[in-house]
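Task card 7
Instruction: Convert sequence to structure tokens.
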Amino acid sequence: MLAVLGPLAYPSRVSTPASPRRPPSGDPSAPAYARTGVDLDRDEAFVDRIGEIARSTLRPEILSSIGGFAGIFKAPERYRDPLFVASADGVGTKLKLAAEVGHFDTVGIDCVAMVVNDLIVQGAEPLVFLDYLAMDHLDEKRALEALRGIAEGCRRAGCALLGGETASMPGVYASGELELVGFGVGVVDRDRVIDGASISQGDAIIGLASSGCHSNGYSLARQIVEEGVRAGRLDLRAEHPELNTSLAGALLAPTRIYVKPILNVARDYWVKGIVHITGGGFVGNVPRVLPKSVRARIDPSTWPRPPIFGLLQKHAELPESEMLRVFNCGIGMLLIVGTDEAEDVARRLESLGERAYRIGQIEVRPPDEPALVFDEPRASPS
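Output:
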């Protein structure tokens, strides 16, 4: 495996003038290796282009002058008792869809979003992000599309693209496809950690609208689409009036990044718990933040569901219970706050560009009852 970047800190490479890597003749310096599909000179030269992309994401805490094999950063000085929070995630089989239509410009945002949205659940401000990008051979067009998306995701989250790895692995990945995984570190003051411990009866649940399927449930979504395409009922590239875009466009809509509005709210209000509706849907994620003495009651009729979910549910005849177990169904993040602050929090979120809905409340959990219950489940589309 060729590690184009290794654990290289991009900022170090940005600040260092590029040195010639290819002999004047243009012949590769390792011709036998190049014949396997790994051109060291070409791949190493690609690092400089990544540095240009990463530059716009840098933060003052990045110590770019140190080292060439790892990135170094410090905690922002405004934190009194900083704790570091780390997370890792990937884009998953959504990448198969991106490869099918030949567009990788949004999946980089997904890669960042899935990590930083997990960090903000603990109240942590994302500081740095590192990516792992692998393919059969270095295809600069595909790689640059994905990396530009990663940089855009970092800008939306306010974190620095500190470093990463770009790997050429002939025989491991299919031609035209790539793997994309992200790693992030955030920081939060010890007394500002959000862990759900203070959640109690009567608290309000506020849901933040998703941009679509985000990056979860795509093994099922792709199966539904593939069966629909084979049967002539669906077309990935054609415009769907109900979606106001193509099916591919709706499915490749990037995951929404909630970092900045939630940091704003957490600064001024007591946010008791946050839930990222990711793999496992509501059922798999909401109970993770709740004390054992309480449960969440959610009313699925309190928010509008993006049409992509109705399309998937209709074509696969999925029951509502499975929709809520697999997909976010239009809610990407939950905030649990005291009922006396719920209206103000929702208004603040709306002013920051989010669509916020009062979708439920916390109640006492009866013995042997589940930690999550739903009111008035929607009927499956006919």
